[in-house]
Amino acid sequence: MKLIRDLFKSHDSIILFRRSFSITSRAFAEKTITIRETIIKAMDEEIERDERVFLIGEEVAEYDGAYKLSKGLWKKYGDKLPIVFRGPNGAAAGVAAQHSQDYSTWYSQCPGLKVISPYSAEDCRGLLKAAIRDDDPVVFLENELLYGQQFPISDETLSSDFILPIGKGKIERQGKHITLVSHSIGLKICLEAAHELEQNEIDCEIINLRTLRPLDEEIIKTSIKKTHHLVSVEFGWPHCGIGSELIARICESDAFDYLDAPPLRVAGADVPLSYAITLEKNSLPQASNVIKTVKHNTKNKNICFVIDYVENVFEKSKAMDYD
Q1: Distance CA 263, CA 229 (A)
Q2: Spatial CB neighbours of 148, under 8 Å, sequence gap ≥ 6
Q3: Label partner for 316 (CA 20 to 30 A): which of 8, 140, 233, 257?
Q4: Domain extent listing, the chain
């Protein structure tokens, strides 16, 4: 009898549980919600609850997502995406066409993306820290051939608070006869060429772009107004390259009126990079290519020297006291 009573009690509990579940189901059924609204609300609540949660994907911002599955989230939480993609870019040594692509131009074509291409240890330290602190997505393009190269560095640069501004170039070498503009490993051959050209009385000013997007146009324009000549140098392919873009911008600006010769480019050969050492070397820019191009661009450099002389005489005459 006791066993039977226990079974009935258990059965009553099951019946009560079922009734309770049935009542709950009817209570839920009094409200309706779409799957879309459920997904949006779930994401909204979790993003609001935990600042580490964010939404990233195709069309998730202004368009409100595919099928409007992120509607309102962009307006509520904004579009800050502090992310940095860093790694080697461009030609290395003996890695052929499969690992030598230069994507600096590809990335620089993307609106909203910041693209950094450093040369020195100072560049890498200051700009990488700035990229990590930046609210926008940043691509940080390094060069494999520079990884083991030694650069002088100051105590200020080694400070934990040291950063460099994104979008600002640097004058690596002061000069007055021609402006060389480059980035990354291109600076190395520019400096080599400038040293040799100095023996021929051609004084090169060298600009380190540091950032490819946004591009520091003002530093280039200011230099051109002083030197009246321009040559761009890059290791990437010439077609639609960084040099093409910066020269186009100069030709479209007031700085064009200051040029005494057409701006020229030095770039990699328009071919897939070969594995053979000799072909690899001849496919990439060398200091000799820069020297040849500079000499061609400044073949009437004596005019520059006359202008320099006249300007110096004029400045001295203004400074003289005739009283």
Answers
A1: 7
A2: none
A3: 257
A4: 34-78, 84-307
Looking at 135-241, which runs of residues are DSSP E strands? 138-142, 170-173, 178-182, 204-208, 211-213, 230-233
CATH level 2 (architecture), domain 84-307:
3-Layer(aba) Sandwich (3.40)
Distance, in Å, from the CA atom of 229 to the CA atom of 247, rounded to the nearest integer, reads 11
DSSP-assigned letter for residue 177: S
Total-model pTM: 0.75
Provide the terminal-to-terminal Cα distance of the chain, rounded to the nearest Å.
134
Quick one: 41 exposed, middle or buried, by C-beta within 10 A (0-12, 13-18, 19+)? exposed
Query: How many angstroms separate the CA atoms of 149 and 155, rounded?
Result: 19
The C-alpha atoms of residue 178 and residue 172 are separated, in whole angstroms, by 13
- How far are the Cα atoms of 7, 224, 249, 259 from residue 253, in angstroms, in the given order? 93, 11, 6, 11
Cα dihedral sign for 103, 106, 108, 112? negative
